Amino acid sequence: MKNVFCLHFFNRRKGWACNKKEIFTTTDRGITWKKVVYKINDIYKLV
């Protein structure tokens, strides 16, 4: 994960991180990360 500026874990396994363009989630303690599809002003972004 490059250029991460926010990182938050809800518990030991689940958390999220973001950089300037993308948002990622993890459910295995940060071993693997998945990109999140998010919506801004009714425009879908596949991140």
Set down the secondary structure blueprint.
Blueprint: E1 6-9, E2 15-18, E3 23-26, E4 34-35, E5 37-40, E6 43-46
Antiparallel strand pairs: 1-2, 2-3, 3-4, 5-6
Protein name: Sortilin N-terminal domain-containing protein
Organism: Bacillus anthracis
What does this structure look like?
This is Sortilin N-terminal domain-containing protein. There is one protein chain. This protein is mostly beta strands and 47 residues long. The chain has one domain. The protein has no helices and six strands. Strands 1-2-3-4 form a four-stranded antiparallel beta sheet, with no helix packed on it. A two-stranded antiparallel ribbon has the order 5-6. The protein is globular. The chain starts with 5 loop residues before the first strand and ends with a strand. The mean pLDDT is 82.
